[in-house]
Design a protein that fits this description.
Largest sheet: 3 strands, mixed
Radius of gyration: 44 Å
Shape: globular
Number of helices: 68
Number of strands: 7
Oligomer: single chain
Helix content: 55-70%
Low-confidence stretches: 202-214, 494-500, 595-605, 745-846, 1235-1247
Length: 1467
């Protein structure tokens, strides 16, 4: 690809850049390298290496050395030293470049590893912090060129390193504007990429055997002609010496193959293609007279007809219609099959010529007559076999693009009310059974059944992609009909030679494919679904018991393993179907079988699921996996857990011990261990006691110590079991040996290398290696000791350490007092397991590899353990470092690489399917891990909230969330992505909730690195509300929480100039112009989600929350919402709600707001909250709200707002935001407005003629029941108090008189009430204007009350009275009243002696303002007490703040005191 950058055609160079871009973006560590590969970078480098001044590749070969070798070594040391300044290193590199012009100097630097150092500098340059070393790059490239030019061996070595070539290309992209660097890189490419054709010894006609000097770099002339080289080199071989040019002989034209080819080619050209040629041959018109040599022969015409797809298929159909014998039809159907094969080989499938042509031909009619009658003879059956085989092929090829016409035709054919030959042929009639002696007829009939079942299996698989309603309904009926027919096949399998009959395996395989579809039993008009399931269960259990359990497993069975595998798979599917169809769990007893039913000592209590246990240790891993899957399905019900546990009482270790052994067996495959983990997970769901409880069904595990006689049950026993099994140590090793690759082959089957299987109880052929004979149960046994596990721990053994790669199945003790054994027998007669029992026999040392699927199951198991025993499990996590190890497996790069592979792989090809499976397993693991981490955050947040864990975890999560799935075509894989993204969003939201301050910076930085992809992801998820509401909800909730946490951080750090981290979400959304379009896209999508849903849709609230958070943080989002008419829409919505409420109030007996959850009120609340956030700190939006008459609308809604406190709180918040720093908005509250008043609006008084008076009336009701509403009212009044119009209304209403009625704290309480603080804040805002100060002074006794209040404290606002005095002192008109009140003067003077520096500043400023330009105040304040305090404060301040310029507040304080002293000392 790099060579193509040097070709002379620009189009080729452009294509090469696209290919290189994919390679560069997918290479390892591409995110950490410069430059960022995008279309903008590539568009300007199409002519990158097309240089004007090529470099001359020539070196000097002087006889004598001009420079000493020691000098060269010293210069090299300067060049490579990290302690030397970069300027000196650059100078040394330039000197070395001059020195290397002499080829004799090359040997010195080669010994010093010059090339390795140059490559190191180049790697450092392309890193994120590589700008520092950019000055060294040009001399480094010159050095490298000169060394390679003189060393062919080094050229050969480096030309094989693709990483070096991509490194040089990245360097050229970084320096694309520097012609010198680009030319040097181009010269290096010439040396490396054309090295093979440059060596003369490979091109020489007569190569010399004598050793020669290093050859001069030269290239063939053909390279010069094809490429635009940035170097000047010598050329050789204008014509290759190996080319052979032979003269064209006329004899070749006389050869028959050549003449045939020419004849057909001429005719195709003459008639402009094969279509016209065939039409001409089939028409009655005569063809033009041509030479005999050019006329097509009969063979030529037949060849053209057969190879032309449409003509060939039409000929096949014609042959079928006109056929007089079976052989002709079979031949035609076989030809049609070959046409399908041709499409498949051309990799076109159903879109190939055959598939397209068949859709346009009426072949259904031609074949229909052969499918509607029963075959009467063997020849009929053979013909039917070929037709069914063709249909099977056709449907299989059209699976990805199914033809509804074809599928409907086949289903209607199969579901005919009259004779149904295709389904009837599955079951042999009595007459056919008698004819079984004819071997040929039997073989044909078996082949027909085989093809029919294969056709039905293909039909079932094909319908997974169908969405047509009629087709789906036909399929459902067909499923149940097929199920009943297969059941008949299973019932008649007791033929004389039943054993070894392949039909049984075929039938069971068909049943397995059928039962995999949910609801397969529920579409029969005559039979109930559960009845069909029970019949299936009876037949399948009969197969298992007759040919597996009673025959000692497949080690002694005469049946093929396919029978057992298909049977147990059917049972697994059947368990899910019965759960869905049965209303209760009573069906569980139908799965019970008696054990030892052929023995004389049959005991009814032995019924249970014991038949399932031998399958868990079958020699076939698929049987083990499926049977354990059946166990996990049955244990989803409590009755299944109890039944399975009771069935395992005769096994050493019981159910718990057996399943734990399978789970921790390192020689077992991961899919089997995974199902064992699911069983344990299900067992943990049922609550278990901590001690023995009489008549309690579920006791959980139970262990007993034989030495000490101690017993544990339930949770303590579980902890002991996990401890003795080294569960967490095993899990630690499992995580460390997890294999994330697509597939792995291990040809060292050590587990199968057994010398004496007959004497080994663990031999893989013995399916009963864990099976023990039933023992007699003591009559004195405690009923509560019927535990679900009989875990035996061998006593009196020495403690052994955990071996990471050798799984010992013995539950080894750590100390004598912790040795427990199951309480399944009497203590005195409890048998110990033999030394060679299954629980103590060590397995061979395997090479342990674990799949992500197993780890995902382990994460779910750990989640349940964390729920049952939070403290113990969290402690074990911490000791084994499990969370860190589990998180280390999460790798976004691997998933991204796999998805990129899927883009280039052919769909439905085995590599693509394997890659899809790999991605699915990784996504499944990430989902399970995220659920586990969420549980950890709830139980023990410190397990997750660690810096070394959080940052890489969040980086990987964001990387996975931003994987581009645009080109992923598989629906199941897309669904897996959506499922995983949902859990990852929930995890991020939980992290932000639990530790927002710690998590927020890492999340924001990770989002900033992929900002464009993040916006695309949010837009994509927001558009999935219909198809994937869970992902829609999780993504918008995460966005809402993210923005909310940042807003909280801003409020908490409002005293600081910036937040402690960068970038922030606000900066990403608002600061850069490049992000404006992405923000507009996001805002548009969320607005559409909000406005496109009804008020009753819960998803509307999710979109509203995200929109509110976005509006609160981003000013651009507010501006965009304004353009999108959000404010007008909200106002119209509020008007509509008001009209609706008023209309409802007129209806007799209707309580409009009886319930708080009323939908209309929720809708009103939502609209006001959106308005609130849209107006936040945005004057343009406030102007729009003013024009939309916000205040009149709220005023008309006020009676309804008075009835509901939550509405009142939201409306007051809206008004607070609206009036903040917006005088016009404040004034609008004073305007009079009127409207109809509802009957119910009598709770807090009727509506006044302005909203301002309504608010004053609400604030006058002291105390309000809701303190939050009270606080919001006074905050709103504090905003309004800054407006001249509002202060006029306040004054006229005598509202301030309520302040004088406030009660001061009594007794030992030294703190002011919250209501008093709210009043003081209001008065403070009123005091900012002279008219407000006059309002305060007109209140009789107000100054005295403020003086008394200044003596009390409050945590949040201790100096409010002093600030009011401070403001009042600045007005000349107020000074006489202040001076006349000695208490105020005393309070202000006392501030100078306060320990609070703010109080000192306020007092000094107030006294200075009072005395300034007011002679009476000078005289009054010259009293000894005041003057003394001023002088002492001034002298103390000069000592305390010698450098007051550093702090403006201290400088202002000194200035106040200085002026005070001067004014008081003046005459």
């Amino acid at each position: 690809m790099l060579r193509l950058l040097l070709v002379k055609k620009p189009s080729v160079r452009s294509l090469a850049l696209k290919l290189l871009a994919f390679h560069l973006t997918s290479e390892e560590g591409a995110d950490t390298k410069r430059p960022l590969i995008d279309a903008r970078v590539l568009s300007r480098v199409t002519n990158l290496f097309i240089v004007k001044k090529p470099i001359e590749l020539k070196l000097d070969d002087r006889r004598e050395l001009v420079i000493k070798l020691e000098t060269v070594e010293k210069v090299y040391e300067i060049f490579t030293s990290d302690d030397v300044d970069l300027v000196l290193r650059k100078s040394a590199a330039e000197q070395l470049a001059v020195i290397m012009q002499d080829i004799k100097m090359h040997a010195v630097v080669k010994k010093l590893c010059l090339i390795d150092k140059i490559i190191e500098y180049l790697n450092e340059c392309v890193s994120q912090d590589g700008k520092v070393v950019e000055c060294l790059i040009q001399p480094c490239l010159t050095l490298l060129r000169k060394v390679l030019c003189g060393d062919p061996v080094m050229r050969v070595s480096l030309s094989q390193q693709s990483s070096l070539l991509t490194l040089l290309f990245r360097v050229s992209l970084i320096f694309h504007e520097d012609c010198t660097v680009v030319t040097e890189v181009g010269a290096l490419f010439c040396l490396l990429l054309f090295d093979e054709v440059s060596r003369m010894d490979m091109w020489s006609v007569n190569p010399s055997n004598k050793p020669s000097l290093p050859s001069v770099f030269s290239l063939p002339v053909s390279v010069f002609r094809r490429y635009h080289l940035p170097v000047r080199v010598i050329g050789h071989h204008a014509v290759s010496p190996y080319s052979i040019v032979l003269p064209l002989s006329a004899d070749y034209l006389a050869l028959k193959p050549v003449s045939d080819m020419l004849r057909i080619a001429w005719n195709l050209s003459w008639y402009r293609g094969s279509d016209n040629l065939l039409k001409q041959m089939n028409s009655e018109t005569k063809m033009q007279e041509i030479l005999d040599a050019l006329k097509l022969s009969t063979e030529d015409i037949l060849t053209l007809k057969i190879t032309h797809m449409a003509s060939g298929l039409q000929d096949c159909l014609h042959s079928i219609v006109q056929a007089a014998a079976h052989r002709e039809v079979r031949a035609a159907v076989t030809r049609m099959s070959f046409y399908l094969l041709n499409d498949r080989l051309s990799l076109k499938g159903c879109s190939g010529p055959c598939g397209v042509t068949l859709k346009s031909l009426a072949w259904h009619t031609a074949l229909n007559r052969f499918l509607q009658v029963l075959p009467a003879c063997t020849e009929d059956e053979k013909l039917l076999i070929d037709i069914v085989h063709f249909l099977n092929k056709l449907i299989r090829e059209q699976r990805k693009n199914s033809s509804l016409e074809l599928l409907n035709w086949i289903l209607e054919l199969l579901l005919r009310h009259s004779a149904n030959p295709l389904l009837d042929l599955l079951v042999l009639t009595e007459s056919q059974a008698r004819e079984e002696t004819d071997d040929i007829r039997t073989a044909v009939r078996q082949q027909l059944q085989k093809e029919l079942i294969a056709l039905f299996d293909t039909l079932l698989l094909n319908f997974m992609e169908v969405t047509d309603r009629k087709c789906s309904e036909l399929l459902y009926v067909f499923q149940t009909q097929l199920a009943l027919k297969l059941l008949q096949c299973l019932k008649v399998t007791d033929a004389p030679h039943f054993y070894g009959l392949p039909s049984l395996e075929r039938t069971l395989r068909g049943m397995a494919n059928l039962t995999a579809f949910p609801g397969w039993s529920s579409h029969s008009p005559l039979t109930k679904p559960l009845d069909i399931c029970v019949k299936y269960l009876s037949g399948l259990l009969e197969v298992i018991t007759s040919f597996y359990v009673e025959r000692g497993g497949n080690a002694m069975s005469f049946m093929g393993k396919g029978v057992t595998k298909s049977t147990i798979l059917c049972l697994l599917h059947l368990s899910h179907e019965m759960m869905a169809q049965a209303g209760s769990s009573e069906w569980m007893s139908l799965w019970f079988l008696p054990l030892g039913s052929h023995s004389e000592e049959y005991i009814p209590t032995q019924q249970g699921l014991a038949w399932l246990i031998p399958l868990w240790v079958d020699r076939d891993p698929e049987v083990r996996f499926t049977s354990l899957g059946l166990g996990s399905a049955l244990t989803t019900l409590e009755t299944g857990c109890v039944a399975l546990a009771n069935s395992c009482q005769n096994i050493s270790g019981g159910l718990w011990g057996t399943v734990v052994n399978i789970l921790l067996d390192q020689s077992e495959c991961s899919m089997v261990r995974r199902e064992a983990a699911f069983i344990l997970q299900n067992l943990l769901v049922i609550p278990m006691p901590t001690e023995i409880i009489k008549d309690y069904t579920w006791q959980g595990p139970c262990v007993h110590d034989e030495d000490s006689g101690l017993s544990l049950i339930g949770k303590p026993a579980l902890q002991a079991l996990l401890y003795h099994c080294h569960f967490y140590e095993h899990l630690n090793q499992m995580v460390k040996h997890c294999y994330l690759g697509r597939c792995m082959f291990d040809l060292n089957f050590s587990a199968f290398d057994r010398n004496s299987e007959s004497n080994d109880l663990n031999g893989l052929d013995d399916s009963f290696k864990f099976w023990r004979a039933p023992s007699r149960i003591s009559q004195d046994r405690d009923p509560s000791s019927l535990s679900t596990s009989e875990t035996t721990v061998a006593p009196s053994l020495e403690s052994t350490e955990f071996q990471p790669l050798v799984q010992s199945t013995t539950l080894l003790p750590e100390a004598s007092h912790d040795q427990f054994v199951a309480q399944g027998h009497q203590e005195g007669t409890s048998p110990r397991p033999p030394h060679d029992s299954s629980l103590s026999a060590p397995l061979p040392k395997p090479c342990v590899f674990v799949t992500p699927s197993l780890l995902s199951a382990m994460c779910s198991l750990l989640d349940n353990l964390l729920t049952i025993a939070p403290r113990d499990t969290a402690k074990a996590f911490r000791q084994a470092h499990l969370i860190e190890l589990l998180c280390s497996i999460a790798d976004a790069t691997l998933i991204q690489t796999c998805v990129q592979k899927l883009r280039v792989l052919l769909p439905s090809s085995p590599p693509a399917e394997h890659t899809q499976a790999q991605v699915s397993f990784l996504l499944e693991y990430l989902s399970s891990l995220s659920r586990l981490l969420q549980s950890c955050l709830l139980v023990e947040p410190d397990l997750v909230i660690q810096d070394e864990l959080m940052k890489p975890l969040i980086t990987n999560i964001i990387g996975i969330l931003t994987v581009c799935t645009k080109d992923v075509l598989d629906k199941e894989l897309i669904s897996a992505f959506y499922h995983t993204w949902t859990h990852l969003f929930n995890l991020l939201a939980m992290l932000l909730r639990k530790a927002g301050a710690v998590t927020l910076p890492s999340v924001t930085v990770a989002l900033a690195k992929h900002w464009t992809a993040v916006i695309d992801m949010f837009c994509k998820c927001a558009g999935l509300s219909a198809t994937c509401p869970a992902l829609y909800t999780a993504s918008l909730q995460f966005l809402s929480i993210l923005l909310t946490e940042e807003a909280k951080g801003h409020l908490q750090a409002k005293s600081k100039t910036n937040l402690s981290y960068s970038p922030t979400m606000a900066s990403l959304l608002d600061d850069t112009q490049e992000n404006q379009k992405s923000l507009e896209r996001l805002s548009d999508v969320i607005l559409q989600c909000y406005e496109g849903k009804s008020s009753k849709d819960i998803l509307k609230r999710v979109a509203a929350n995200a929109l509110m958070s976005l509006l609160a943080v981003s000013r651009r989002a507010q501006k965009h919402a304004l353009k999108a008419n959000l404010i007008d829409n909200c106002m119209e919505q509020m008007k509509h709600i008001n009209a609706q409420l008023n209309l409802d109030s007129l209806r007799p007996g209707k309580a409009v707001l009886k319930k708080k959850e009323d939908g209309v009120i929720k809708e009103l609340s939502l609209a006001m909250q959106l308005l609130r956030n849209c107006l936040y700190q945005n004057e343009e939006c406030k102007e729009a709200a003013l024009e939309a008459h916000l205040v009149p609308v709220l005023h008309s809604l006020w009676p309804w707002i008075l009835i509901d406190d939550s509405l009142m709180q939201i409306s007051l918040q809206l008004l607070c935001v609206y009036t903040a720093n917006f005088p016009n908005g404040c004034s609008s509250l004073c305007w009079s407005s009127c409207g109809p008043q509802p009957v119910q609006a009598t709770h807090r008084g009727a509506v006044s003629n302005s909203l301002m008076l309504c608010i004053l009336k609400l604030a006058s009701q002291m105390p309000l029941e809701n303190t939050m509403v009270q606080q919001m009212v006074f905050l709103l009044l504090s905003n309004l108090a800054l407006s001249h119009d509002c202060k006029g209304v306040i004054q006229k209403s005598n509202f301030l008189q309520n302040f004088l009625s406030l009660a001061l704290p009594k007794g030992g309480n030294k703190h002011l009430s919250n209501l008093t603080i709210l009043w003081l804040k209001l008065l403070l805002n009123i005091s900012f204007g002279e008219d407000g100060q006059q309002m305060i002074l007109r209140l009789d006794g107000c100054l005295d009350l403020l003086t008394e209040m200044s003596k009390y404290k409050h945590k949040s606002s201790p100096l409010l009275p002093l600030l009011i005095f401070h403001n009042v002192c600045f007005s000349p008109a107020n000074k006489p009243k202040i001076l006349a009140n000695e208490k105020v003067i005393t309070v202000l003077a006392a501030c100078l002696e306060s320990e609070n520096q703010n109080a000192q500043r306020i007092g000094a400023a107030a006294l200075w303002a009072l005395i300034y330009n007011y002679q009476k105040a000078k005289t009054a304040l010259k009293s000894p007490s005041v003057k003394r305090r001023v002088d002492e404060a001034y002298s103390l301040a000069k000592k305390t703040f010698p450098n007051s310029e550093a702090d403006p507040l201290n400088a202002y304080y000194l200035k106040c005191l200085e002026n005070l002293v001067q004014l008081l000392n003046s005459s």
